[in-house]
Design brief:
single chain, alpha/beta, Rossmann fold, 7-stranded mixed β-sheet, 7 helices, disordered N terminus
Length: 227
């Protein structure tokens, strides 16, 4: 427990002091998209600004309007309390990247993985490098992620059809804290895109944005707790 508190403090100090040292006029929170190797399209789509705008309008989170890009082997990784990883194909982490991502998550960071279709096999393989002693477990409907700001009594909403399977939310944990959330067969990010990109109905886009807010709120609260 004592070591966990130290790691959290180190993470928060890095998060709070790096922007000051750089002389930037920043917002309290900046979230980041993960740039990864392996040939997958980590850069696909541009949904985060819409999610950020919705979160700024519906919460008190002071999130920078534009997301950053995070490389796992760059020290800037520890500036971002929330990481977004998206793609359709292959993902590959070097040993150094896996180690640094594990340190980031152990220190209070949060990773959201969005299966944009075809990501499942690669992301499960690579996350085993990060937490070799864990496998993804499906979150129960009672988990606070589904009710921390907006209520989702049926769990993860289904936003985009892939294989006509139900949406499922999986997690990895650090000392009981959900630190990685993997949305499978849901594709929340499709609902964060501009309305004309996928022609999703308003209620579908709203559900995706609300679930995204839950992810952000949970990440901020759980990452800063002393538990």
């Amino acid at each position: 427990m004592h070591q966990m508190l130290i790691r959290r403090l180190v993470f928060l100090i890095a998060f709070l002091l790096v922007p000051i040292a750089s002389g930037q006029d920043t917002h309290e929170i900046t979230i980041a998209r993960v740039q990864y190797g392996g040939g997958g399209d980590w850069y696909s789509g541009d949904p985060l600004p819409n999610l950020i705008a919705f979160a700024r309008a519906n919460t008190l989170l002071d999130i920078a309007p534009e997301p950053a890009t995070a490389e796992l082997d760059n020290d800037n990784l520890f500036r971002y309390p929330f990481l977004y990883l998206n793609g359709h194909g292959n993902v590959f982490f070097t040993e150094r990247e896996a180690d640094r991502l594990r340190r980031y998550l152990e220190g209070g960071g949060f990773l959201y993985i969005n299966d944009d279709y075809g990501l499942d096999e690669a992301i499960r393989r690579e996350m085993e490098k990060v937490f070799p002693d864990q496998e993804f477990v499906e979150l129960p409907l009672s988990h606070e992620l589904y009710s921390i700001h907006f209520d989702f009594p049926r769990g993860l909403p289904k936003i985009h059809e892939h294989d006509n399977e139900p949406a499922r939310g999986f997690g990895l944990f650090q000392d009981g804290r959900l630190c990685v959330f993997y949305a499978y067969e849901s594709d929340l990010a499709d609902g964060w895109e501009e309305a004309g990109v996928h022609n999703d109905p308003r209620e579908i886009r709203e559900a995706a944005l609300k679930m995204g807010v839950n992810l952000l709120v949970y990440a901020m609260l759980s990452g800063r707790s002393d538990s």
